Amino acid sequence: MKILHTADWHIGRRLNGTDLLSDQMHVLDQLVEYIKDEGIDLCVIAGDVFDRSNPSQAALELVNEYLYRINIGLGVPVLAISGNHDSRSRLDYGSRWFEKSNYHMRTSIGDILKPVVIDGHHFYMIPYMDVLEAKQYFMDESIVSHHDVYRRVTAEIRNVMDHGARNILVGHMFMSDAKASDSERPLSIGLSEEVGTDLFTDFDLILLGHLHHPFAITHDAIFYSGSLLKYSFSEVRQPKGFRVIDTGEGIECRFVPTESKYDLVHYKGSYDEVINEKVTFPDKNAYFKFELTGLETIKDPMAKLKMIYPNTLELRPVVEVRENSMSKVDVNRSSDREIFDAFIEQVHGSELTEYQQGLFKQLFKGDIDETD
Amino acid sequence: MKILHTADWHIGRRLNGTDLLSDQMHVLDQLVEYIKDEGIDLCVIAGDVFDRSNPSQAALELVNEYLYRINIGLGVPVLAISGNHDSRSRLDYGSRWFEKSNYHMRTSIGDILKPVVIDGHHFYMIPYMDVLEAKQYFMDESIVSHHDVYRRVTAEIRNVMDHGARNILVGHMFMSDAKASDSERPLSIGLSEEVGTDLFTDFDLILLGHLHHPFAITHDAIFYSGSLLKYSFSEVRQPKGFRVIDTGEGIECRFVPTESKYDLVHYKGSYDEVINEKVTFPDKNAYFKFELTGLETIKDPMAKLKMIYPNTLELRPVVEVRENSMSKVDVNRSSDREIFDAFIEQVHGSELTEYQQGLFKQLFKGDIDETD
């Protein structure tokens, strides 16, 4: 069976106030095309389809449209769970009708022991749940971390699972040797989010969402698909795409990169080289975050940058610090004049002109002891 | 075919701040029971399932649950349209999956010429649309009122309909000899809302939502089901229930009343008779709106009323106006003392005591001419 594994679509997400719906459609078109062309048998979405618990109408329409294309248009079963960004009730709305078309949207802890069984594969769908919720659900006071939650969840499943079947867990969590980027909303405050890989040895395959880096973890059976797009400037260097898993003899998993409509670029340099195009970028329409020196005397640099790079989203001024920023003057052993000269040189990068020296003398007159 | 016709559920509606979800469930339970017991073949919901375009999670769950019971639980087709309170996108979410189970949620003008055909009955589903929208959709500048909208809609349908079939229109509008209550949100401002009955002669049956009174219109073929509950104190005297239409030889339509969990009561009288139970009500737990006299000297009357009538929602003080409220004293021809006496009698309903008369004399001394 060929499984396409994706997660963290975050439909409705905005980047520095910019709407990303058309960017998201651009990638989802590739994903749908791939499912069609490559004969994918099943699509797994490991949480955070929406970015907010209360998605906009446009976001709802987009998700509705693409899931329709995959599930009804192409007739491919869809197995999805809710993530920490999703609202369970909203995702659950209509789910009992969806099931009849093999679109399984699982949002309830109450269903974690009922695998979706397709073609000898048992998919244990574990929607995101927080520590308090799991503690109450299992009435288990020993649950105080996310690791505890999944210790309990996997123990429960172990009791009922068919160990002869191919068992696949779909979840939305922070696996322990994975690193979080800026755009994964913290799962909890004050409680450890990390879940150890050792809990999942009963499963042949663990397909995850939450972390946006598709290579956030290196493991034979545990995979993140990564997010649909780069959703923060901390993800600039992350590849984006989806995973395809072939469960033939063994399990083969590979990452399929997608092409973004616009890339994210974080550039650090000088205003001069950017505005005068002394540095070139593959796409001037990329979403730029600039950290630039030389902005001190520029009026409205953002507007000027947008003339060339229309999708500039962020501009941070960098105050140029000269290499020898530490003063070479020992204030205890130098005259006031020496201190002043050193200061002027440090700030302006040049010595006082004769005229300036004259002014200095005039202003400070006898107040400054030149020889001390 | 036995059709159950309902509308204006307004799930999520609050009455003077009070949540009505359990009241709504109480009535929906009766509706589902009726469908089961009476062998209803089809359920029509003529708009405003939700009260707001952005329903709460509890409202979403409730609608999801009852539509599931009717459509999948009992296997009864559901034909529904969006009303002016609903958000189209939200209602449309999942609708293409619902269709596969004969749950047809129609929210788009683009679909009005595609009837849902069930057992020789052609259901033209007309979601609520406003004047501007219809004008743009049909590119017809002559559309300036709701009547114009439906003139165009019915003309369009007339061109394509099978006149030999049984044609049923499902809509959400204000039919012209119908009267609006407080809780039907105005469809538009500054444009006539009323739609004439003469436009619908091509249809065997017109099943409507929007007006909350089930007998808002008297017509052989045009029916309102009325709302699920009394949603404002202006609806106190309205029966609530649903309609059952039998389309055998002819068309038989009857109204089936439902029982509310708590009734709405609007009582006008005195505080004394209410608080001392000199007047009795069938259910002290009803939702009361009291308009009472004699509140002037009562401290926190609302709290006291709630001790007996816990679901009191509204209390309006009524200042008792005596029958002869016009003063009999001609101020131009009476002494100040006569004017004052008349005033005291009017306000207190009694003459001054001797002690008060003494006080009066003392205070006004010679300033008041008693004989003028």
From TrEMBL, chains A, B:
<dbReference type="GO" id="GO:0004519">
    <property type="term" value="F:endonuclease activity"/>
</dbReference>
<dbReference type="GO" id="GO:0006310">
    <property type="term" value="P:DNA recombination"/>
</dbReference>
<keyword id="KW-0378">Hydrolase</keyword>
<comment type="similarity">
    <text>Belongs to the SbcD family.</text>
</comment>
<dbReference type="InterPro" id="IPR004593">
    <property type="entry name" value="SbcD"/>
</dbReference>
<dbReference type="InterPro" id="IPR004843">
    <property type="entry name" value="Calcineurin-like_PHP"/>
</dbReference>
<protein>
    <recommendedName>
        <fullName>Nuclease SbcCD subunit D</fullName>
    </recommendedName>
</protein>
<dbReference type="Pfam" id="PF12320">
    <property type="entry name" value="SbcD_C"/>
</dbReference>
<dbReference type="InterPro" id="IPR041796">
    <property type="entry name" value="Mre11_N"/>
</dbReference>
<comment type="function">
    <text>SbcCD cleaves DNA hairpin structures. These structures can inhibit DNA replication and are intermediates in certain DNA recombination reactions. The complex acts as a 3'-&gt;5' double strand exonuclease that can open hairpins. It also has a 5' single-strand endonuclease activity.</text>
</comment>
<dbReference type="InterPro" id="IPR029052">
    <property type="entry name" value="Metallo-depent_PP-like"/>
</dbReference>
<feature type="domain" description="Calcineurin-like phosphoesterase">
    <location>
        <begin position="1"/>
        <end position="214"/>
    </location>
</feature>
<dbReference type="GO" id="GO:0008408">
    <property type="term" value="F:3'-5' exonuclease activity"/>
</dbReference>
<keyword id="KW-0235">DNA replication</keyword>
<comment type="subunit">
    <text>Heterodimer of SbcC and SbcD.</text>
</comment>
<keyword id="KW-0269">Exonuclease</keyword>
<feature type="domain" description="Nuclease SbcCD subunit D C-terminal">
    <location>
        <begin position="263"/>
        <end position="347"/>
    </location>
</feature>
<dbReference type="GO" id="GO:0006260">
    <property type="term" value="P:DNA replication"/>
</dbReference>
<dbReference type="Pfam" id="PF00149">
    <property type="entry name" value="Metallophos"/>
</dbReference>
<keyword id="KW-0255">Endonuclease</keyword>
<keyword id="KW-0540">Nuclease</keyword>
<dbReference type="InterPro" id="IPR050535">
    <property type="entry name" value="DNA_Repair-Maintenance_Comp"/>
</dbReference>
<keyword id="KW-0233">DNA recombination</keyword>
<dbReference type="InterPro" id="IPR026843">
    <property type="entry name" value="SbcD_C"/>
</dbReference>
